[in-house]
Amino acid sequence: MTSHTISVLVENEFGVLARVAGLFSGRGFNIESLTVNEDPLDPTVSRIVLVTTGDDQIVEQINKQLNKLVSVIKITDFKDVETIDREMVIVKVSVDERTRSELDSIVQAYRAHVIDIGPRAITVELTGDSDKIKAFIAIVRPLGIKEVVRSGKVAMARALQLNHDNHQNKRAREAE
Prior knowledge:
The protein is of the alpha+beta class. The protein has helices at residues 16-25, 56-68, 100-109, 130-144, 162-175; strands spanning 2-11, 31-39, 42-54, 72-77, 83-94, 113-117, 121-128, 145-150, 154-157. It folds into two domains: 2-81, ACT domain (Alpha-Beta Plaits); 84-154, Alpha-Beta Plaits. The protein contains five helices and nine strands; from the N terminus they run E-H-E-E-H-E-E-H-E-E-H-E-E-H. Strands 5, 6, 7, 8 and 9 form a five-stranded antiparallel beta sheet that branches. Strands 2-3-1-4 form a four-stranded antiparallel beta sheet, covered by helices on one side. The two termini are 32 Å apart.
């Protein structure tokens, strides 16, 4: 099973998200991460970025079904594309006199930001790739996590596709 990050550009209409999600659930696939935002350059368009794990052939069929939806403008499966991706997490961590400086050190090491301070808890915001988010949560867990809110992944193709271009060039040479 392969992880797929898929970007779907859709018309910004009522019910589009439900129809897109329905194609995945109807085929027994879980959406592991989901973000939806109105395009800041064109409010008539929204971008859905979702992450799912599944067999390549089934995900290809889902992509074909998505293309049949009237509201879908463009689908990009980032499976063979180098991407820039980020998630955000907000973590409320229990603190006392003993653990406050330890949390401060962790926040600095991860380049996170303290966004709220209370007498018994500090709330921290962190942006990064999935591995960085997971590592941060794991390292602050022993201090005592009170609450965690995590966004879904956002992703876009890198401007320069070195591996993808090299792969295509290799295929072209092999075909000659």
